[in-house]
C-alpha cells in the first residue's frame, strides 16, 4: 500500500507521543505510594485486630480483678468474724479457742493467696491497658499516615492524568489528518505487541537499535518513498527518516 510520506513521518511523532503516554501510565500504575499505601492499610487492619485482642484481654483482666477482689473480701470477712469470736471467747473452752485460732491461721493463708491473686489481676489490667493504649496510639499514627499518603497519591495521579489527557489531545490532532489505513496498520501492530513504527536512517541504523537486514534496508532506500514498508520480523511499519 501507499501513503503520503508526510503521513509516514508524522507517524513517528505519533509513536513518540504514545511512548510518553505509556511512560506516564506506567508511572501511575507503578507509583511507589500505591505500594506504601497498601502496606499502611494492611498495618491498620492488623493493628485493628490487635486492638480487639487487647480489649478482650482487658475485659478478662477486669473480670479477674472483680472475682479476685470478691474472694479476698470473703476471706477477710471470715477472718474478721473469727477473730471477733476469738477475742470474745464467750462460751468456748481452751480447746475450742485453739481450734478457732487454727481456723484463723488457715484463713490467713488463704487470704495471702487471694491477695496475691488480686495483685496479679491488677497488674494484668495495667499491662492490658498499656498494650491497648500503645496499639491505639499506633493506629492513630497509621491513620494520619494513610490520609497523607492517599492525599499525595491523588495529587500525583491528578498531575499524571492531566499530562496524559494533554498528550492524548495532541495525538488526536496529529492522527486526524493521516491516512486511515496507515494509522490502522500502526494500531494493529501495537495491539499485537509490535513496535508500531520504526524509523530507519540513511546510514542504515534504526530507532531503538533494531537491526534491519542490508537487503531490506536497500529495498526501503531505493523504493518509492510513499510505499508503506512493513517489517515481517518486527511487525512494524519502517519509515525512512531524513529522506532527501
From TrEMBL:
The keyword Nucleus does not apply. Pfam families: CT398_CC. InterPro entries: CT398_CC_hairpin. Residues 44-71, 97-170 form a coiled coil. Residues 14-194 form the CT398-like coiled coil hairpin domain. The keyword Membrane does not apply. Keywords: Coiled coil. It comes from the Bacteria. This is Nucleic acid-binding Zn-ribbon protein. The lineage of its organism: Bacteria, Bacillati, Actinomycetota, Actinomycetes, Actinomycetales.
Amino acid at each position: 500500500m501507499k501513503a503520503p510520506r508526510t503521513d509516514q513521518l508524522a507517524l513517528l511523532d505519533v509513536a513518540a507521543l504514545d511512548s510518553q503516554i505509556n511512560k506516564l501510565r506506567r508511572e501511575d500504575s507503578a507509583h511507589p505510594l500505591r505500594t506504601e499505601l497498601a502496606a499502611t492499610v494492611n498495618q491498620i487492619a492488623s493493628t485493628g485486630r490487635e486492638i480487639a485482642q487487647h480489649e478482650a484481654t482487658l475485659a478478662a483482666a477486669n473480670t479477674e480483678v472483680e472475682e479476685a477482689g470478691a474472694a479476698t473480701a470473703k476471706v477477710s470477712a471470715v477472718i474478721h468474724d473469727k477473730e471477733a469470736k476469738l477475742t470474745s471467747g464467750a462460751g468456748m473452752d481452751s480447746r475450742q479457742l485453739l481450734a478457732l485460732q487454727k481456723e484463723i491461721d488457715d484463713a490467713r493463708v488463704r487470704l495471702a493467696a487471694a491477695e496475691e491473686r488480686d495483685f496479679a489481676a491488677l497488674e494484668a489490667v495495667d499491662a492490658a491497658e498499656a498494650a491497648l493504649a500503645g496499639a491505639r496510639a499506633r493506629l492513630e499514627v497509621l491513620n494520619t499516615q494513610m490520609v497523607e499518603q492517599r492525599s499525595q497519591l491523588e495529587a500525583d495521579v491528578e498531575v499524571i492524568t492531566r499530562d496524559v489527557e494533554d498528550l492524548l489531545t495532541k495525538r488526536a490532532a496529529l492522527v486526524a489528518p493521516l491516512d486511515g489505513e496507515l494509522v490502522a496498520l500502526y494500531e494493529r501492530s501495537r495491539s499485537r505487541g509490535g513496535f508500531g513504527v520504526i524509523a530507519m536512517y540513511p546510514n542504515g541504523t534504526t530507532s531503538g537499535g533494531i537491526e534491519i537486514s542490508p537487503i531490506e534496508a536497500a529495498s526501503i532506500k531505493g523504493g518509492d518513498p510513499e510505499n508503506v514498508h512493513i517489517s515481517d520480523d518486527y511487525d512494524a511499519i519502517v519509515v525512512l527518516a531524513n529522506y532527501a
